[in-house]
Design a protein that fits this description.
This protein has 443 residues and is α+β, with helices and mostly antiparallel strands. Helix content is 35%, strand content 19%.
C-alpha cells in the first residue's frame, strides 16, 4: 500500500478559511484586478506543483537543513515523504519583484504520536519581467553568501525553478523564513496600537518608524530607540563586504522592505531577506583606467614614506582604503533613505542615527577575517584603526566632492538623485562631525 501523500492547503494571508473554488477571489489575477496573467487559483496550483516536484526534493533539502540547524546535530537523518503530513501555503504580499508566500510544513518523524510545530519557509514567486530577470541570479548570490554567513543574516535557499503555463513564465524560489521578523518604515503617521505606549507629542516624521504586523496593525518605535535597527543593518552589509574584491551587496533599499526586524529582550534583531546584486564598482588604483580617480582633488597628498610604501606594496593598501571609503560613504547615506510608509515621499532618517551607523560599520569591519592577500599590510595596526586614521584626513568638503562624483553615474531624471543632491551637503557635514568627534565605539 502506498504511503499517503501530504495534505496541501492554500491560504491568502489575513483570511482564515482555506482558498478553494468557492472563494470569491478564485479567478482574481495574481497581479490584481484587471491585470491579466496568472490567476490566483492557477498560482496556487503551480506553487503546489513546485513543492511536490522531483518527489519533494527541494522541500526535503530545506527540512533537513532546518532540523539540523535547530538540533545542532550532524545526526539528523534524511526526511522522507511519509514524514511530511501537511503543507500550508499562505500568499503573504505583493512586492515590486516577487510575490512572497509562507510555506508551513508539519512533519511527524518515526513512530512519534505528535506532529511537530510547523517548519516555515519562504516561497518567492516571480512573474514580472524584472522579477524573472532577478530570481535566478538572486538564488546564485544567496547560495554563495550563505557559505560565509555564520550568523544567518540572509536566507538559506534550497531550490529555484521556472515553469511555463498558458505561455506565461513563472519562477519559484524556496528559502528559509525568518519567523517573527517584520517590515518597518519611516512614517509621519502617529497612529499606534492599543498595546503600545508612546509620546503623542513626539511626532516629527523621521523620529518615528512603524513595524508592520501581518494583521495590518503597526508598532510605533521612536528615536533614538529604533536607531539600533540601522546599526545592525550597517553591520550586516559590512559583514558581507569583500575586502579583497570590493564586492558588496548592492541595489538594496529600505523602501522595498529588504531589511526586517524582530523585537527582542535586548532590543532588535535584523535580517536581510533579499540580495539582488553582489558586485564591485571599484576600479583599482593600479588599473590604467583609474588615473582620473587617483588625481581627484579630494585625494590628499601622501608624505614621502607613505608614498614610497604604496609603490612598494603595488598600491594594495590604497586600493583597500579607496574601495572601502566608497562603500562606507554609500552605506552611511543609503542607510538613511526610506519612503514614508514604504511607498510615500522619499525621506531621511534624522542625522542623529549616524553614530549608530558608524558603530555598526566598524563592528562589522572589526569582525571581518582579513584575506591572506592583504593581511600583511595590517599587522602592526588593525584595519579598523588604519581606516579610522584614513577617514580623519577628509574634510566635509572632501566628503561632499566624493559624493558628487559617486552620483555622477546616476540617472539624471531619477527623483531619488534629486532628493539626495538637496540633502548631500547637510549629510556630508553631519558625517564629518561624527568622524571628527571620534564616535567609533565598537560594542
Amino acid at each position: 500500500m502506498d504511503n499517503p501523500k501530504p495534505i496541501v492547503k492554500y491560504y491568502i494571508s489575513g483570511i482564515s478559511e482555506p482558498f478553494t473554488e468557492k472563494s470569491s477571489l478564485w479567478d482574481m489575477p495574481l497581479l490584481g484586478k484587471d491585470a491579466g496573467g496568472i490567476l490566483l487559483h492557477e498560482y496556487f496550483t503551480l506553487a503546489g506543483q513546485f513543492i511536490i516536484s522531483d518527489n519533494y526534493y527541494v522541500l526535503q533539502q530545506g527540512l533537513a537543513f532546518i532540523l539540523k540547524k535547530e538540533s545542532k546535530s550532524q545526526e539528523i537523518r534524511e526526511i522522507n515523504i511519509e514524514d511530511i503530513k501537511q503543507i500550508d501555503i499562505f500568499l503573504e504580499k505583493h512586492g515590486a519583484f516577487y510575490h512572497p508566500a509562507r510555506v508551513e510544513v508539519r512533519i511527524q518523524i518515526g513512530n512519534s504520536d505528535c506532529i511537530a510545530s510547523p517548519i516555515c519557509f519562504v516561497l518567492n514567486t516571480a512573474v514580472s519581467a524584472h522579477g524573472l530577470a532577478l530570481i535566478n541570479n538572486e538564488y546564485r548570490i544567496l547560495k554563495y553568501l550563505s557559505k560565509i554567513d555564520d550568523n544567518f543574516f540572509v536566507p538559506q535557499v534550497f531550490g529555484v525553478k521556472s515553469m511555463t503555463y498558458r505561455g506565461i513564465e513563472i519562477s519559484f524560489l524556496l528559502g528559509t523564513w525568518f519567523d517573527g521578523y517584520k517590515e518597518f518604515h519611516l512614517t509621519d503617521n502617529p497612529s499606534y496600537d492599543n498595546n503600545s505606549s508612546c509620546d503623542a507629542n513626539n511626532i516629527e516624521g523621521s523620529s518615528l518608524i512603524h513595524i508592520w504586523n501581518s494583521d495590518g496593525t503597526v508598532i510605533p518605535i521612536y528615536s533614538p530607540s529604533y536607531f539600533k535597527i540601522y546599526e545592525k543593518a550597517s553591520e550586516i552589509l559590512t559583514y558581507f563586504y569583500n575586502l579583497e574584491t570590493s564586492e558588496a551587496i548592492e541595489l538594496w533599499h529600505h523602501a522595498a522592505g529588504d531589511f526586517v526586524v524582530k523585537q527582542t529582550i535586548d532590543g532588535f534583531d535584523v535580517k536581510l531577506i533579499t540580495v539582488r546584486d553582489y558586485s564591485s564598482n571599484y576600479v583599482p588604483v593600479s588599473s590604467s583606467d583609474s588615473s582620473d580617480y587617483v588625481e581627484q582633488d579630494y585625494h590628499l597628498p601622501e608624505d614621502e614614506d607613505t608614498a614610497q610604501k604604496s609603490v612598494i606594496s603595488n598600491n594594495i593598501e590604497q586600493d583597500v582604503y579607496n574601495a572601502l571609503l566608497l562603500f562606507f560613504l554609500n552605506l552611511t547615506l543609503r542607510m538613511r533613505i526610506d519612503r514614508i510608509d514604504g511607498i510615500g515621499k522619499i525621506s531621511l532618517v534624522d542625522d542623529a542615527v549616524i553614530p549608530f551607523i558608524l558603530k555598526g560599520f566598524f563592528r562589522g569591519l572589526k569582525n571581518k577575517k582579513i584575506p591572506n592577500t592583504i593581511q600583511n599590510y595590517f599587522i602592526e595596526h588593525s584595519l579598523v584603526n588604519c581606516f579610522q586614521s584614513h577617514l580623519s584626513q577628509f574634510s566635509h568638503q572632501n566628503l561632499y566632492q566624493i559624493y558628487l562624483i559617486m552620483l555622477g553615474d546616476c540617472q539624471t531624471d531619477n527623483p531619488e538623485r534629486a532628493f539626495i543632491l538637496r540633502h548631500l551637503k547637510e549629510h556630508s557635514e553631519a558625517l564629518y562631525r561624527n568622524i571628527s568627534n571620534g564616535i567609533f565605539a565598537i560594542s
